[in-house]
Design a protein that fits this description.
Layout lengths: L12 E9 L7 E10 L2 E6 L9 E4 L4 E4 L1 E6 L15 H12 L5 H17 L2 E8 L5 H13 L3 E6 L6 H4 L3 H11 L5 E5 L11 H10 L3 E5 L7 H9 L8 E4 L5 H10 L2 E4 L1 H7 L6 H7 L2 E4 L11 H22 L11 H15 L17 E4 L13 H8 L5 E6 L2 E5 L2 E2 L4 H19 L1 H8 L17 E3 L4 E3 L1
Parallel strand pairs: 1-4, 1-5, 6-7, 7-8, 8-9, 9-10, 10-11, 11-12, 12-13
Antiparallel strand pairs: 1-2, 2-3, 5-14, 14-15, 15-16, 16-17, 18-19
The protein binds zinc ion (ZN).
Length: 482
Amino acid sequence: MSAGDPAADGRPVVFRNGLVLTMDDRHTVLPDADVLVVGDRIAAVGVGLDAPADAVEIDATGGILMPGMIDTHRHMWQTAMRGYGADWTLTQYFVWYYLDHGRLFRPEDVHAGNVLAALEAIDAGVTTTVDWSHGLRTVEHADAAADALESVPGRFVLAYGNIQQGPWEWATSPEFRDFHRRRIDGGRLGFQLAFDVTGDPSFPEKAAFEVARELDVPVTTHAGVWGATNDDGIRLMHEHGFMTPSTVYVHAATLNPDSYHRIAATGGSVSVSTESEQSAGQGYPPTWALRRHDIGVSLSMDTSVWWSGDLFSAMRATLGADRAREHLDAHARQETVTHAHLRAEHVVDWATRGGSRALGMDSQVGSLQAGRKADVVLLRNDASPVMFPLLNPYGHVAFQAQRGDVHTVLVDGRVVKHEHRLVGVDLAAARRGVEATVSYLMDAMGEEAWRRGMNPDIPATAVLDNPYTYTEWDAGSAQWKH
Ligand SMILES: [Zn+2]
């Protein structure tokens, strides 16, 4: 860092001498290269760039420069309950949020969760996040969600949802229309409709799809979730003509090949939340099947009520799950996998371009190319023994790096994190907001319900007899005795 304050708005920024993963169409990798940012755009990427005299210079030596990462499905309001559901299953999650306690959340609680989640995202180099906001049971909640997203200098897409009503109810209400007109039309915030399709043969969700079509906004939907949504929902969407290239299918883990064919044929993409699918039980993380159907993949973290919101863990878990499946399938056939299909380069692509393609933002973000919006991440950590040697850059991002290695983040050309610290954000206010929500929820739920919710019962496990602990042969019964 040479000249001046990196947070000073409006000055050009030049990163010097980094290993640049451009993530352009050819996945060009440039060693010892620079990235120049002027205004909200990337002005140039290359070696030994000339920079304007007033440019802020950031030394990227020993680091990796990559595009800001993109999360296509995160229930940001739930970040107010960070870690509470670490031991949940999907069933316990549904009972807690959908049935028992989700409606306790007030607009200020949605706001508190969203602010914290937004800060968490940019801190981890996730510069674009879809807020899969299904706790919007009134428009006041929606305004609070939008206010929160607008208060943090990241790029956000508000995916509007409400689990307390059918989508055919809330999406057709005048209040919802008014919200869209007031807060979204022509504004900076991206927008989607977020709802699930139950498979009811009368297809009541049709009315909500029609609203999405009329407003020309994408639909994002939890599809192929064990015990919740299935192939019937996909078939109904397809038969009614509501599967489009902008549709995002979240999880898509418990689907038959016919559904994958319908998704592939209509050009939609799947948001894979590997850590969630592995732990909660939506189905096996589906990248192994999506690859075979040539369906686009983006990555997501789902909810910080279980996991933290960084895409390093998403990339790592996705590589592991895909390869584990490939090995296991092969072993069942008495075969050996000698070449893994899924590469580190693929998951880095999914964490960047996969997201920009899914969101229809590929000409704006997702790659480091002149003319693109300047959403830039520098991974550099001089104090870490894990940052060298840098031999395989994609492998380094997917398997070695972590949130603490995120040194600098730019969103829209603005420095939002520098030297490992968020810049120009009020973390103390975010903390106060979440603390107020937590104490309100503890009061509203009562101590017993709060404690039980966090500590679900453990089912009984029958421990098998262990033949190696037997000590004595009983000749009479011809058995080992303890
Ligand atoms: Zn979800």
